[in-house]
Design the sequence.
């Protein structure tokens, strides 16, 4: 039996919840299909304990519901989850859980989207029909671990960042963190704070900025071109952190805000990791060449033994596996083909939300644009 709704939303993360809230605000019926057993599963089940939102709360609020006045400028994981709990309750959002979308295609005859999702409880495939389809499965849908020669010979624990909670269990261990983005840097800090002998692989150049620098940059972007803001950010970073190459870190040639928009590469928000690197408590290493048992071989030929490897190597999207017939909106990597600010709207009632590489602020704007557009078409 096929269930019918005006809008089908795939994904119950903050992007999907924001979209549902905006649709509910306009009294537009919708349904959310979520493969996990809860909403915001990345936050509730797969985020490390010390995580805080990296941007000031004014850039992270979802539509139609402010954060409590008591919340600090930089919100903790627990506070954000509590906010989402209240958000779902307030807007009476009821996702269908444990529904893994296997196919979504536009039916020319009925001018509707037909979505097939497997009920992970019963094993049955359920069908849904909607005039509109919103892809809200996120930038961080499937954890990615790179293939490395000899990884299968490593005798210790191998984790993805989504499996890491805190550094308590790793005290006195030799731990290698692979990846020098925000998750990698913050997990390395947590490990070092808990007494682990911590190393981090910095394969690519990164911008290191303080939260105050980023806040200033986001305010300035409203008034002056991003290349001028980028130049200021690099100058401030050099003043604050000096020559990073002596610690094994290089700065990119392109500016931090340009890289975020063009490649989805966020600057590193320094929360104390830099001082640990500077003091030698965290060792920075180049790319891994191979692994031989407990010994990890690096690009310069040097080897080091480790007890645990934690991969902070990001995520891949699987949209291209289940979304069929779309040649316009999303590329093979599940990211929008159209440029910002026209990235959120496809053809035949297809939309995407939270894929503009602008964090929660971008997801909120997408959700409001989508709801307003659908309202205008009904």
Sequence:
């Amino acid at each position: 039996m096929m269930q019918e709704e005006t809008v089908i939303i795939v994904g119950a993360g903050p992007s999907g919840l924001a979209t549902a809230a905006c649709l509910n605000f306009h009294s537009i019926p919708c349904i959310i299909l979520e493969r996990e057993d809860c909403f915001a599963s990345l936050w509730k089940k797969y985020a490390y304990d010390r995580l805080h939102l990296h941007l000031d709360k004014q850039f992270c609020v979802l539509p139609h519901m402010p954060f409590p006045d008591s919340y600090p400028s930089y919100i903790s994981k627990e506070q954000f989850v509590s906010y989402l709990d209240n958000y779902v309750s307030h807007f009476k959002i009821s996702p269908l859980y444990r529904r893994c979308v296997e196919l979504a295609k536009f039916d020319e005859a009925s001018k509707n989207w037909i979505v097939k999702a497997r009920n992970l409880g019963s094993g049955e495939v359920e069908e849904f029909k909607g005039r509109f389809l919103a892809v809200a499965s996120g930038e961080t849908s499937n954890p990615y671990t790179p293939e490395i020669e000899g990884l299968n010979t490593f005798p210790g624990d191998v984790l993805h960042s989504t499996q890491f909670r805190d550094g308590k269990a790793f005290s006195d261990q030799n731990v290698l963190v692979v990846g020098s983005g925000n998750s990698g840097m913050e997990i390395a800090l947590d490990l070092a704070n808990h007494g682990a002998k911590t190393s981090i692989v910095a394969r690519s150049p990164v911008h290191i900025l303080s939260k105050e620098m980023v806040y200033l940059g986001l305010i300035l972007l409203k008034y002056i071109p991003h290349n001028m803001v980028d130049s200021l950010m690099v100058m401030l970073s050099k003043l604050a952190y000096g020559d990073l190459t002596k610690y094994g870190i290089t700065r990119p040639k392109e500016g931090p805000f340009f890289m975020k928009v063009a490649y989805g590469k966020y600057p590193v928000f320094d929360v104390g990791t830099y001082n640990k690197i500077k003091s030698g408590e965290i060792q920075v290493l180049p790319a891994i060449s191979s692994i031989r048992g407990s010994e990890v071989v690096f690009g310069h030929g040097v080897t080091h033994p480790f007890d645990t490897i934690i991969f902070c190597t990001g995520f891949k999207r699987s949209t291209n596996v289940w979304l069929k017939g779309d040649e316009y909106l999303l590329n093979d990597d599940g990211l929008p083909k159209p440029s910002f600010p026209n990235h959120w709207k496809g053809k035949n009632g297809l939309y995407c939300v939270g894929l503009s590489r602008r964090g929660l602020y971008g997801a909120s704007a997408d959700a409001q644009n989508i709801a307003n557009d659908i309202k205008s078409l009904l």
